Amino acid sequence: MTFSVVARCAETGMFGLAISSSSPAVAARCAYTRAGVGAVASQNITDPRLGPFALDLMQGGMSAPEAIAGIRDQAQFLEYRQVLAIDKNGRTAIHSGPNSLGIWTEAHGTDVVAAGNLLANEDIPQALVDGFMSTTGHLGDRLIAAMRAGLAAGGEAGPVHSAGMQMCDAVPWPVADLRCDWTEDCPIEAIATAWDVYKPQLADYVQRALDPRAAPSYGVPGDE
Question: What proportion of the chain, given as a percentage, has pLDDT over 90?
């Protein structure tokens, strides 16, 4: 029911992921990032505990492959789960349980990993990785490019209805957390539109949190 891409920007150290599904509100249950630590997508028959658990293991010093091994050792019902992880050094790992739905596959690249289930074909994760690696620029732009590539390669077996993109960088909250929880149109394009609006303001929102005295104007009526 889901395909996702999890990645790291080697230049900035920023982590992020993008995800889409036929199910509602997929990013609310499946997207996890932590500055200086890594990013995790927990999907298929979703257990929202697995994302924070994997990040805790990596924050404690484990690599992404070690964290995924730790999940396999300690979590229940892993035969139903897909978990993707990337760590601060760009190492990647995936667990795909044998009870993942429909066609499920995975792919790895430099600073990027992708996987999906109930896919239209086996090529979708590699298309996500290729879409990410063939683009440059801001991590958010590259994640959007990856999702568009995955959708163009076939995406899910049926229509997708929700999507999200989350990124973290230097502060203990996501610097971007964009979601489309349900639409009959393309949720990936809804996220892309939201990113076009949010990207120029991302640094301003961080500055307003850290020290509003040094922040630019809020850009709303009445703020002069």
Answer: 95
